[in-house]
Design goal:
Layout lengths: L1 E14 L2 E14 L3 E5 L6 H8 L7 E6 L2 E2 L5 H11 E5 L10 H11 L4 H14 L15 H14 L4 E5 L7 H16 L3 E6 L2 H4 L4 E6 L2 E5 L1
Parallel strand pairs: 3-8, 3-9, 6-7, 7-8
Antiparallel strand pairs: 1-2, 1-4, 4-5, 9-10
Length: about 220
């Protein structure tokens, strides 16, 4: 069953007085439960596509349907609701709040949803357990290694039970051993039925996914 469907999507920016076509007539389908890597060099359009998939930006043209809902026609408040309910983000820089411990960082999005403490606690603990970081739940980000911080970031995403996890260079700030551990978490989550889209410029990372989409100069050049 198709979760993501984009058809003939285009996106342009003006940089230094020059019009840059970041996405050029891109079409792509991603099914529920897929693990897809979007690969390409810097400036190829992969991050622009990620922003559109994550409802952080909108396309200039074309259609985007997420889980049966036409995204193009939604207003900002509706897009924010989609981001909060259906999409989980994992970034290279972790984006943890430094004054909150691991538990509180994972809990925060659920607070924004208006959940009670009683509702939040089992969800937070389940998410922390899923990435093997429960024992560090009372530690601040500054007291955690890069790999541990990324585990917390993944747990924060899992707590909201999103339909899709978008991971933008999630191993970019990690050493090779820790990167392999984080990729194993993504593979395990995918085996449990999670849909994962991973952005990377590294072929070795991309090959850990079940399907690889290649971008160059804003075009979908190959699907493997």
């Amino acid at each position: 069953m198709t979760l993501i469907q984009i058809e003939h999507v285009s996106k342009s920016y003006v940089m230094g007085g020059e019009m840059i076509r970041a996405l050029d007539d891109v079409s792509l389908d991603i099914d529920h439960g897929e693990f897809v890597a979007i690969m390409g060099p810097s400036g190829s359009g992969k991050s622009t596509l990620m922003n559109i998939l994550g409802c952080l930006d909108v396309a200039d043209g074309g259609d985007y349907v997420l889980d049966g809902k036409a995204i193009n026609r939604l207003k900002d408040a509706q897009l924010a609701e989609i981001r909060n309910r259906k999409i989980g983000f994992v970034f290279q820089s972790f984006n943890l709040l430094p004054r909150l411990n691991a538990y509180e960082n994972v809990e925060l999005p659920l607070i924004y949803r208006g959940m009670s403490r009683k509702e939040r606690e089992p969800l937070v603990m389940k998410a922390l357990e899923a990435v093997d970081i429960v024992e560090r739940r009372k530690h601040l980000p500054s007291e955690l290694s890069g790999g541990q911080q990324q585990r917390v970031a993944i747990a924060r995403t899992l707590a909201g039970d999103p339909a899709i996890i978008l991971a933008d260079e999630p191993t970019g700030a990690l050493d090779s051993k820790t990167s392999a551990e984080i990729l194993e978490i993504f593979k395990r989550l995918n085996e449990q039925g999670r849909t994962i889209v991973l952005i990377t410029h590294d072929m070795a990372i991309a090959q850990q996914a079940k399907r690889v989409v290649y971008f160059r100069d804003g075009k979908l050049s190959e699907v493997g």
